[in-house]
Design goal:
Layout (H helix, E strand, L loop, with lengths): L3 E2 L4 E2 L5 H4 L9 H8 L7 H4 L14 H16 L4 E2 L5 E8 L2 E11 H5 L3 E2 L6 H14 L1 E2 L3 E5 L3 H11 L5 E4 L5 E7 L2 H11 L5 E5 L1 H17 L11 E8 L5 E2 L1 E5 L7 H8 L3 E7 L10 E6 L2 E7 L14 H11 L13 E5 L3 H10 L5 E4 L5 H9 L10 E2 L10 E2 L2
Parallel strand pairs: 6-11, 8-12
Antiparallel strand pairs: 1-5, 2-3, 4-5, 4-10, 5-12, 7-21, 8-11, 9-10, 13-20, 14-18, 14-19, 15-17, 16-17, 16-19
Helix pairs in contact: 4-6, 6-9
Length: 414
């Protein structure tokens, strides 16, 4: 059962929130962060991407960069740009994109739930990426950025969400990317107790986005417990920062593929190879989006094609075999194009659907890429089924948008 608790959030004063809040550390590079933070000493990038305070080209993993994160984090608190709440709260966080709003409850999730797999994952993590974030958590003694969880729909929590959302928010703004962010402080003790009790009835939480951050936060908590001879189990480091959304609120968008060459095939030969396992239909020059599961869109030489996987080429009873990312990885990328390792092969690239089909055609038309493949998005039901069966999704399967805004609230570990 999910063990969660309220916490004393560290967060910006209302009038400073738009200056402090930032995109997550892993959705932009150092130069993009430098540009976004230009002229703004309050930007959270000075803490989560502190290499921007050094000359361009500075290694972001240099010890002096981590030290700068700590110095900046302390300065933010001393300057009153981040102020800790004097009581433990849950918080409600709403994100709005394209007229659609999803509501998440900001919680302190239990390290032990991650360790005993009550927090379920669907992706593999890389140790080097974990270690980078572990260093960041260790030196700041805080979870500066939240992780993104989903949970099975719950009527009581849904009612609490609706009731809190009807009150005056603490923050309400539209970020430069056009996405809306609204944030409430839940300070009613009855509601706080009800949230804790209701999560305790939920068997599992699911990592939607942020597998490396989740692993790093949990591993640092476990490390602190091991190194504390007086460890009791109720210390703040036993918990980490997460925003948990009801599954029905979330919508996964497509995560598409681009390939640099056709493995020696001419475009006509490539299409001929595809016809062995797919019904191929030329859709013309207008962008074509996959219409349903097992239907794909191919962009090749200025034309869009509909590819529909033939019966018998997939297994709808297999949680992994049913995925379109599996079908395309096996039948197109591996069998025709000889791309075997999606994590390391430089001949394939990935583009989140938020950038649109136009980004795919642009990169092919420019000559940078030979072809593009657009996929029908994975559903939350598929994600949960995979996590529940202990399976791991192929790389680059899910893309969640909008991303959580960092800096709305921080969880300190002491």
């Amino acid at each position: 059962m999910a063990k969660v608790k309220p916490f004393k959030g560290l967060r910006p004063p209302r009038e400073m929130v738009t200056e402090v809040a930032s995109r997550p550390y892993d959705v932009l590079n150092s130069e993009e962060a430098r540009k976004e933070a230009e002229g703004n000493p309050k930007s959270l990038y000075h803490i989560i991407k502190p290499e921007i305070d050094f000359p361009a080209g500075t290694d972001e993993h240099d010890s002096k960069v981590y030290d700068k994160a700590v110095a900046n984090f302390n300065a933010f608190q001393q300057n009153g740009w981040l102020v800790q709440d004097n009581a433990e709260h849950y918080y409600l966080y709403a994100q709005t994109m394209d007229g659609r709003t999803q509501y998440g409850i900001v919680i302190a999730a239990a390290v032990e739930d991650y360790m005993n797999e009550n927090i379920k994952k669907h992706e593999l993590t890389r140790r080097d990426k974990e270690e980078d974030r572990m260093k960041h958590v260790r030196i700041n003694n805080a979870n500066v950025e939240p992780v993104f969880f989903a949970f099975p729909d719950n009527e009581v929590l849904e009612k609490i969400i609706r009731n809190v959302a009807a009150t005056e928010p603490e923050y309400d703004f539209v970020a430069p990317d056009g996405f809306g962010h609204t944030f409430w402080v839940i300070n009613d003790s009855e509601l706080i107790n009800a949230i804790t009790a209701e999560f305790a009835k939920i068997p599992y939480l699911y990592i939607a986005d942020g597998h490396h951050r989740t692993a790093a936060a949990a591993l640092v908590g476990a490390e602190k417990a091991k190194n504390n001879p007086e460890h009791r189990g109720d210390e703040e480091y036993n918990y980490f920062l997460a925003v948990a959304f009801p599954a029905s609120h979330l919508k996964i968008i497509d995560y598409n593929r681009l390939v640099k060459d056709l493995n020696g095939y001419s475009p006509a030969e490539f299409l001929e190879q595809l016809m062995k396992n797919f019904e191929v239909k030329d859709m013309g020059t207008a962008p074509y989006r996959p219409e349903k599961l097992h239907n794909f869109a191919l962009y090749l030489e200025g034309h869009w094609y509909s590819l529909t996987a033939r019966e018998g080429t997939y297994d709808d009873n297999d949680p992994i075999g049913v995925l379109d990312v599996t079908i395309s990885s096996d039948l197109i990328l591996r069998d025709i194009l000889a791309i075997h390792d999606l994590r390391s092969d430089k001949r394939v690239d990935f583009v989140g659907g938020i950038r649109g089909l136009e980004e795919l055609s642009r990169r092919v038309d420019s000559g940078e890429m030979a072809a593009a493949l657009a996929l029908y998005p994975v559903s939350m039901d598929q994600l949960i089924r995979i996590a529940d069966t202990g399976n791991i999704m192929p790389p680059k399967t899910t893309w969640f948008e909008p991303k959580l805004r960092s800096g709305l609230v921080i969880h300190k570990l002491d």
